[in-house]
Amino acid sequence: MQDQLNSDLKTAMKARDKTSLDVIRGLKSQLTNKKIELGHDLSDQEASEVVLRELKQQKESLAEFEKGGREDLAEDQKAKIAITEKYAPKQMSAEEVKKVVEQTAKDLNASAPSDFGKVMGAVMPKLKGQADGNVVKQTVKELLG
């Protein structure tokens, strides 16, 4: 991932693409900080977690900008999200998530809304880094509700 970021950074510099530069520099900074924190080179899984965390923060910012009526900032944030998504691991579709949730609920004999925590606790480790937590949460609620 570092090699891809470095290559894209050079391309963005040559193209004078300020948005891409900001996003790529931010990702490189986050990855470097995580590397220092852990004291070793990052595995692909660890690097993916950093990118997904950054993507989640960007999406939360977008929601706040839209809620606040700041369309100028929202458009800029959408562009940043599109760039960050290029580095994020492929996410499972809602249908794939539903299959995993249904199988897990079946394995746990969970059928009531009170089993929500039990199912979420079993599903999230299986889908870590592969699916958005909000999609998983919504799927579990629909299944048990």
Describe the structure.
This protein is mainly alpha-helical. It folds into two domains: 2-85, Orthogonal Bundle (Hypothetical Protein Yqey, Chain: A, domain1), CATH 1.10.1510.10; 94-144, Orthogonal Bundle (Arc Repressor Mutant, subunit A). The protein is built from seven helices and no strands. Helix 6 (116-127) packs antiparallel against helix 7 (133-144). The protein is globular. The mean pLDDT is 89. InterPro entries: Asn/Gln_tRNA_amidoTrase-B-like (IPR003789), GatB_Yqey_C_2 (IPR023168), YqeY/Aim41 (IPR019004), YqeY/Aim41_N (IPR042184).
Coarse shape? globular
- Computed over alpha carbons, the radius of gyration is 18 Å
**CATH topology of the largest domain, what is it called?**
Hypothetical Protein Yqey, Chain: A, domain1
Structural class: mainly alpha
Uncertain segments of ≥5 residues (pLDDT<50)? Answer: none
In CATH terms, the superfamily of the largest domain is: Uncharacterised protein YqeY/AIM41, N-terminal domain
Question: Could you tell me the mean pLDDT?
Answer: 89
Helix content: over 70%
Please count the helical segments.
Answer: 7
Name of the level-1 CATH class of the largest domain: Mainly Alpha
User: What gap, in angstroms, lies between the N and C termini?
Assistant: 40 Å
Let me know the largest β-sheet: none
CATH architecture of the largest domain: Orthogonal Bundle
Order of helices and strands: HHHHHHH
Compute the number of strand runs.
Answer: 0
